[in-house]
C-alpha cells in the first residue's frame, strides 16, 4: 500500500497558509494566521513599561502569552482561567514564543517599552505553536511600525524575520507541517524556528514512538528548510499587502 | 446644544447586529455574534455527563463560561488564566448567561447531558454580555438540533427564545444598546434579558451617577422592548439561513 | 385554599427589623442588623490609605467584603478561606454592597482614606444582602461621625440614606422581604436598593421559574417602596438612639 | 513600684467567663463564649460522613476550623477568604482545637459521622484559642446530646471535659489568662489544655523574650491548674442551665 | 515482658548524632545533621534586605523554611510545590524553627539583613524538627562567621546556643529522642527547645493517647535535659572541627 | 588569545560523573548523581495505582517531578511550595524527564503501577536536567529490579538505556557538558537525550545569542555522541557495582 497523508498532501507540502492583518481594531498589531484549519489570533500590545529587572537600563522587552479557547479543540478542554492555572504545555509554548521573537529584536532600539504578543487559538488542528510564532512576527512588525509612525522610536528594532514549522515522521515517512491527524499518530515530532538568514533559533524534536536516527533528522531538517521559505514569503506578502 | 450619541445613532437605534453560524468547526454550535464592533464567539459543547448534584435524576444541565481575550479591549487587560483566577465581573457574567439560557430549556427533555456555552469576547465595544446571551441562544439551538439529527433526544427541549440588550441614561437621555463610549460615561446602565413572549428573565439596573427615577425606568423598559424585537428577528433570520 | 406565607405574614409585611449599634468594640462603626432570623454583623473600618488607582487624587474610597460563617446556614457550607477562594455569589454580593454605599458618599469630602464595610452573616434566613446593605449604611455613618468627632474631615461626605429590600412572586402572589422558605421556592426574586429620595440605585430581578410580566414588575416595585419606608425609619431611629 | 496588670486583675485572677448556649439556631450546638472582651462563636455541625481515611471503619471524626472576622481585632486584618489562603497561625490553631477535642471523644461510640467545630472570633482581646477550646467543648456536648435525643447513638462518646487557658510571665510575674495588652508585651506565653481529671492534653510554652526557667514553669502550671477549675465549673453550669 | 525500644536503645539514650558542615558549596552556612536515620540539610542564606515591617529600623531578621523531599518518608508524600501549598504541619514547623533561632540572635547586632534557614529533610525517621533546629543553629553560626570574616558586622549577634530534642511516653515508659517507630505509636510526644543556659525556649507536649500526669511531665523534662547536654556538645565539637 | 573553558576542560571533555546507588533508604530506587558540582538526588517510588486515564488498561505509568532546593543555587531562589506554584521551567523539565524515561519502558510489562521519579537538585552548577535524566534511569532500573525480586513482574519492562547531556557554543567553540559559568554566557545551548542504540529521544536547541548554522549543529551532535558513550558506561558501571 503506497504511503498517503490523511489530508492527501505530498510529504513536502504545507497546508494553505493565510495571514490576515488588522483582524481586530484595538491592538497595535492584530493578525489572524491560518495553517489549514488551525487558526490563531495574534495581537501585539505596546506598553510604556518594562519588567522590574530591566527598569532604568534603556532596553525594551518582548513577551508572549498563549491560550486555547476551550472549544477550539475536537473535544472541549477545561478553561485555564477557571481551573486557576495555566498548564505546563501552555507555559512551555508561551515561553518559546517570547524567546523566539526576542531573537529578532534589538531591545536597545525598542527603548523602555514592552510588546506583549497574545496568541489565542480560535481553532486547533495541529501546529498551533508554529502558526502562532509565524503570525506573531507579523503582529510585532505592525506594532513596531505603529511606534515608528508616531516617531516614538528612531532605529528599527527588528532585524530579520522569524517563522516556525513542524516536521515529523508519520508512518515511516518524513513529512512537513503536521496536522492533528498526523500529530496524534506520529513517531517523531519536531518544531523548527528559524530566521530568514537560514539560522536556527530553536530546534525541538521528540520521539513519541521509536527513537529517530541521524539520517531521519537530516531529512526532517531539509523538509523544514523548504517550509520556511514558503512561510517567509507569506509573511512578506502580508506585510506588503 | 442638541443631544447626540457618540456614534451618531438615534436614541432608540441599535447597532448593526450580525449572527454568523458555524464560525468554527469542532463545536456542536458555533456562532460569531456582533453588536457593532463588539464581537463574541459563542460555542456550544455537548457532553454526556451532568454535574454531581444532578446525577441519576434524568435531567440535563446548561452552563456557561465567559472570557475576554486580553487585547479585545482598548488597553490590554491581564489574562485571567495567568493571574490564576477569574475576576468577580467574569463570574457574575457567566452565572448570568447560564441562568438565562436555562430559562428556555426543558431539562427533562434534554436528558442527562450538559451543554456548555463558551462566550469569548474577540473584540469589545460595550454590551459584551448582551451580545453573548443573544448569540449563545443560537449556538444552543444548533447544538440541540445536532442532538435531534442524531436522534439522541426525542422532544425539543427549547421553549421560546431569549435575547438581551442594554439600555441606559446617557447625558440625561434614555438610549438603547450602549457602546463603550456611552457605557463608560452614563448615569444609569440596565441589562434586560427577555423571552420572545415578552416576559422578563433578568433585569439588572445600576445607577452609576445619580439614582434613577421611576419614570426613567419606564422609558428604559420601553426602549428595551423595541430592541428585543429586532434581536429576536435577527436570531430567527440566522436560524433560517 | 387561600394564600399564606410560611411565616404567616401579610404579603406586604416585612419581618421585624432591628439595628443594634456598637455591637463590637474595635471598629469605627459596628452594627448588628436583623431582618427576622437573618443576622448580619456589619463593621466599618477606617484606613488612611486609598487603592493605587486613587492615590494623589484627593478622593476617598468605600468598599465592602461579605462572608457567611460556615454554619450560619441550614446545613454547613464550606469555609471560603479553607477552599482558597471566594465564590461567585460572594464576589457578586460584595461588589453590590460597595457600589451601593459609594452611591451615597461624596468621595472628595471623605479625603484620601478608605472605609471598608465587612458584612459577615452570623445567621442566614434569606435576604442577607439586603440586610447587609441596610446595616452597613448605619455602620458607615458611625465611622464618618467618628472621623468628624476627631475633626479629620470638614464637610459631611454622606448625602442621603440607602437601604435595600427583596421582593418576589411566591406561589403567584407578590410578597415583600422573602425569608429562606420563600426564597428557595419562588418564581421571581428581586432586590431593590434605593435612596431616601425615592431614586433607584440598583434593581436586580431574576425569574427563577416562569418569566415575569410587566404588571408583576409594577406590583413588586410598589411593595418595595413600602418596605423602603420602614427601613429608612429604622435606620433613623437607630442613629438617633 | 508595685506590680499591676493592665486590667487591674490579681495575678491569679481570670477574666469574667460566660458561656451562652443556643446562640444561633441552625447548628446542632452553638455557643458564644467570652473570656472578658474576647468573644468566640463556636458551632458544632453533624454530618453523616467521615473523611476518606476512616470510611468503613465504624469510627467517627471530630475536626475544627478557626477564623477571625476581619475587624474582630484592634486594626483590621485581611480576610483570609479574599487572600486565598488560611495563614499559618490559623492552621496551627484549628489543628490544635481539633486534636484537643478528639482527646475526649470515643470515636467508636460516635459512629461513622463527623462533627465539625467552627470557632469564629467576633471580638479579639487575647486568648482566642483557649476560649475557642473551652466553648467548643460545650457545643460538642450539645451536638452529641442532639444525636442522643434522636437515638442515633447508643453510648455516650464523650468522656470527661476539656478546657484551655493561657498563662504567662508579664513583667516578671506569672499571671493567669492574659489579655491582649499582656499578650503583646510578655516574656513567656503558655497555653494549657487539660481534662477534668487533671491530665495534660496539650502544653505549649513559648519564650518571647528571655528563656524561662524550670521554677517559672512550675509557677505557671500551678496558675493554670487554678484557672482550669473555674473553667470546668463554668462549663458545668452552662450545660446544667 | 520487659520494656524494650524498637531500636534496642536505653530509655535515656539518644540516637547517634552527626553534624557535617560545608555540605553544599553555595550557601553561607550548610550543614547536614543526622539524628540516627533522620537526615536534614540546613542551609543559611544571607540577604542584605529585611521584610517590610523592619525596614529602616536598623534590625535584622532570621527566618526559616522547612520541607520534606517527597520520598524522604516511608511511603511517598505529595510534593507541596505541586499541590500548590504548604500544609499546616509544614507551616507550624517552619514558624517554630524561625522563632527558636531568633531567640539566640541580637537582631540589632545583625544589622539590616535577613538570614534564611532552609531545612530540607532528605531522609525521615522521626524527630525531623528537632534535628532541623539543632543543625540550623550551626548553619546560622557559620553564616554569621562568614559575615564577621568579611567585616560586615562588628558585634557577634549570637548569644548562647539552641538545640532541640523530643521526649515521649512509649508503652508507658518515658523515653528520649523518639524515632519513627516510637513516634507513630506513643501516648505522649513532647518537643523541647532549650538554650545552653538551661532555659526553655519552646515546650510543646501533646497527649496522643491518654492525658499525661504531672509526674510524667517531670520525668520527660529530666530526660530532655540529659539529651540537651549531648546536643550542645555535638554542636560545639562540629563548630570546633 | 587561545580558547579556554572556565573550568580548564577540553572542549570535548565531560565533568567527572559519579552515580551513587542506595543514597537514601526508603525509596525503591535512590541515586545521587553528580556531573561535577551539580548534584541531584533521584528517587524512584513504586505505587500500585495508575492515573485515571489508564485505569483498567493493564498498562503502567512512569512520571517525574523536579525541584531545586532553595539554596542549591548561587543565590537563594524562592521555594516553589511557598510561592504556591511550580514555575514554567520546573514544569518543562519534569515533563521532559517523564517523557524521556517512558521511552525506554514497556508499559504493558510494567503492569498497572506507577513509578514516580523525584529529581531534587541538592547543588546546582549547570546541567541539572541532563544529570537528572541520567541518574533517574538508574533509579528506575533499581525500582524495576525490586519489583522483579519480589516476583511482581514477569517480563523486564526496561528496553535499552537513556541518558542526557548538554552541548553548546561557548565563545564561538562547540563544547560538551556546560557548567553554570558556560551556560550563563553561551550563544547556543542544546540538550540531547539519546538511547544506547544511538537513537535520539529528545533534541532541544536554543540560540541564546546569534542563531546557529547547520554546520554548528553537526559539530554539537558529534560532541553529544561522545558524551553519551561515557554516560552509558558510567550507568553500566554503577548498576554492576
UniProtKB/TrEMBL annotation, chains A, B, C, D, E, F:
Residues 13-143, 161-226 form the Exoribonuclease phosphorolytic domain. It is an enzyme of class 2 (transferase). Its EC number is 2.7.7.56. One of its GO terms (molecular function) is tRNA nucleotidyltransferase activity. Phosphate binds at residues 89, 127-129. It catalyses: tRNA(n+1) + phosphate = tRNA(n) + a ribonucleoside 5'-diphosphate. The keyword rRNA processing applies. Keywords: Nucleotidyltransferase, RNA-binding, rRNA processing, Transferase, tRNA processing, tRNA-binding. The keyword RNA-binding applies. InterPro entries: ExoRNase_PH_dom1, ExoRNase_PH_dom2, ExoRNase_PH_dom2_sf, PNPase/RNase_PH_dom_sf, Ribosomal_Su5_D2-typ_SF, RNase_PH, RNase_PH_bac-type, RNase_PH_CS. Pfam families: RNase_PH, RNase_PH_C. PANTHER family: EXOSOME COMPLEX COMPONENT (PTHR11953), EXOSOME COMPLEX COMPONENT RRP41 (PTHR11953:SF0). Homohexameric ring arranged as a trimer of dimers. Belongs to the RNase PH family. Phosphorolytic 3'-5' exoribonuclease that plays an important role in tRNA 3'-end maturation. Removes nucleotide residues following the 3'-CCA terminus of tRNAs; can also add nucleotides to the ends of RNA molecules by using nucleoside diphosphates as substrates, but this may not be physiologically important. Probably plays a role in initiation of 16S rRNA degradation (leading to ribosome degradation) during starvation. This is Ribonuclease PH. It comes from Pseudoxanthomonas mexicana. The gene is rph.
Amino acid at each position: 500500500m503506497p504511503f498517503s497523508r490523511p489530508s492527501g498532501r505530498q510529504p513536502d507540502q504545507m497546508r494553505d497558509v493565510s495571514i490576515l492583518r488588522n483582524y481586530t481594531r484595538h491592538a497595535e498589531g492584530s493578525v489572524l494566521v491560518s495553517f489549514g484549519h488551525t487558526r490563531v489570533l495574534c495581537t501585539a500590545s505596546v506598553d510604556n513599561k518594562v519588567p522590574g529587572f530591566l527598569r532604568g537600563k534603556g532596553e525594551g522587552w518582548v513577551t508572549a502569552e498563549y491560550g486555547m479557547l476551550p472549544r477550539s479543540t475536537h473535544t472541549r478542554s477545561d478553561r485555564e482561567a477557571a481551573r486557576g492555572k495555566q498548564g505546563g504545555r501552555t507555559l512551555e509554548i508561551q515561553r518559546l514564543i517570547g524567546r523566539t521573537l526576542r531573537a529578532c529584536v534589538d531591545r536597545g532600539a525598542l527603548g523602555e517599552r514592552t510588546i506583549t504578543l497574545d496568541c489565542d487559538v480560535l481553532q486547533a488542528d495541529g501546529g498551533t505553536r508554529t502558526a502562532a510564532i509565524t503570525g506573531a512576527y507579523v503582529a510585532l512588525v505592525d506594532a513596531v511600525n505603529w511606534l515608528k509612525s508616531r516617531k516614538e522610536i528612531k532605529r528599527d528594532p527588528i532585524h530579520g524575520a522569524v517563522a516556525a514549522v513542524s516536521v515529523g515522521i508519520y508512518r515511516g515517512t518524513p513529512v512537513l507541517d503536521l496536522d492533528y491527524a498526523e500529530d496524534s499518530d506520529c513517531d517523531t515530532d519536531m518544531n523548527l524556528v528559524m530566521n530568514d538568514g537560514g539560522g536556527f533559533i530553536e530546534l525541538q524534536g521528540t520521539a513519541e514512538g521509536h527513537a529517530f536516527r541521524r539520517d531521519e533528522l537530516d531529512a526532517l531538517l531539509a523538509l523544514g528548510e523548504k517550509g520556511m521559505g514558503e512561510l517567509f514569503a507569506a509573511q512578506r506578502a502580508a506585510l506588503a499587502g
